[in-house]
Amino acid sequence: MRILMCRPDYYAIEYEINPWMKKERQADHKKALKQWEGLHKTILQCGAQVELVPPGRGLPDMTFAANAGLFYKGKVILANFRMVERKGEVAYFQTWFEKNGFDVVNKPGVDQNHYYFEGAGDALVANGKIFVGYGFRTEIEFYKTSHWIDPKHTIICELADPYYYHIDTCFCPLNEKQAIWFPHAFSEKSREIMSKSIELFDVDAEEAKRFACNSVVIHKNIIIPSGCPKLYEKLKKIGMTVHPCEVDEYIKAGGACKCLTMRLD
Ligand code: ARG
User: Fold this and answer.
1) Residues near 23 by Cβ (< 8 Å), separated by ≥ 6?
2) Is 11 part of a structural domain of the chain?
3) DSSP 3-state of 182
4) Total of domains in the chain
5) Which strands make up the sheet holding 49-52, listed edge to edge?
């Protein structure tokens, strides 16, 4: 497995674009760097390969590489951010993908779909299906009009709670057949559709708030935010190796382990 990350050199809470972010609750830069390094090391120990994209000055959220784009069927579908504060990241990510030989689509000024799409933060693949979120950032029309994602394999999920504004904050596939989720974050209709598409294990409100669903799965390993003991037990019972990871400085920006990574295969 190949994963893209971006060092948090310019990471800070400089604006408020989701309910978690409060400028007066600033991230501690030293701690944030240590936590990112801890995550990076754990990912390597779990056997994945990590690529690094150089961070862009003045782009504090670029460390959340999940939003760069989505690797899907051999292509990178570049993000088209809803948030103006993050639009500047696209050029940096695009340059890196192209330099590294990726087939990049959804490029500004070339073939960009004009609907918003926030990358792998809003699209997760499992069991030959792609679970996509909409409601706060990505627009449902993106999935309906983009020819890079086959609608036959798409499970469209409506996000219903502004604290869980990307699908990767409240849903996480564990393997081809099973996933964890925070059901409250989805509309009733979407809950029903999702339940029919994959076996789901509930995360409670307390651990959802700790970003339990924002985890990185590498084979049988799950790298998961610290402070979610109930879920750890459940995951161990189904044969997973649990790696709790301290990411509190990133929760302040509305992100955690998974948001800091983007899968490249
Ligand atoms: N502050 C960032 C934002 O609001 C956090 C992004 C979290 N990324 C994710 N994939 N959930 O855009």
Assistant:
1) 13, 14, 15, 16
2) no
3) coil
4) 1
5) 49-52, 2-5, 262-263
Given pLDDT bands bounded at 50, 70 and 90, which one contains residue 138? very high
Pocket of ligand 1, beta carbon within 6 A: 17-18, 21, 61, 64, 66-67, 83, 86, 121, 166, 168-169, 253-255, 259
Ligand 1 center from residue 140 Cα (angstroms) = 18
Identity at 197, one-letter amino acid code: S
CATH number of residue 256's parent domain:
3.75.10.10
The structure's pTM equals: 0.97
Among this protein's residues, is 259 annotated catalytic?
Answer: yes
CA dist., res. 251 & res. 60, Å (int): 14
Q: Is 145 a member of any domain? A: yes
pLDDT at position 127, please? 84
Res. 66: pLDDT tops 90: yes
Please check the confidence at residue 7 and state whether its pLDDT lies above 90.
Answer: yes
CA of 160 relative to ligand 1 center, distance in Å: 16
Q: Give 63's pLDDT tier (boundaries 50, 70, 90).
A: very high
Q: Ligand 1 atom closest to Cα of 17? A: 4
pLDDT in tens, 157-196: 999 999 999 999 999 999 999 999 999 999 999 999 999 9
At 45 the pLDDT is: 98
In a domain, 81, yes or no: yes
For 148, the domain range is: 2-6+16-263
Q: Please give the helix or strand (H or E) that residue 221 lies within, else none.
A: strand 221-225
Using most ligand atoms within 8 A of CB, pick from 64, 118, 172 the residue to mutate for ligand 1: 64
Q: Is 166 a catalytic residue?
A: yes
Range 123-139 average pLDDT: 96
Among 46, 166, 170, 213, the active-site one is: 166
* Ligand 1 atom nearest residue 18's Cα: 4
